[in-house]
Amino acid sequence: MPIIQHQLYIDAPKKVCFDLARDVEIHTQTVSKTNERAVRGVTSGLLEVGDEVTWEATHFGAKQKLTAKVISMDKYNQFVDVMVKGAFHSFTHTHLFKDEADGTIMIDIFEYKSPFKFLGVIVDKLFLERYMRKFIVSRAKMLKKIAEAGL
Question: Which Gene3D superfamilies did the record assign (predicted)?
């Protein structure tokens, strides 16, 4: 099961970073390269524990849907979402936020299991793990840009 970890310093308060990371409209802005949008469940505002959202996006040239559910939240410190339905066998995405000097360290921990059993391991090594790392890093950089702009 691949685990992707990424951390980034953001020159903004922890509360701002936390709320931006769980904002459905901001999520859409940060992943615009995949044309991702919320199509079912919570489609606007801030996600809370128990909320589900179905995202529709284009990955690898194909339109896909994925439903995620927020399963835990410690306000302004961390929240966790898991895949309920989608292309992966499973995933857990932990979002951590730590005070650092005058800003925040945002940490993403993305653990997933590919579909296709043994073939999934090969797909991970060939391209999926690299693709997911790039996706998570890109989204984090966009959140940083938005947070530091004071939006």
Answer: 3.30.530.20
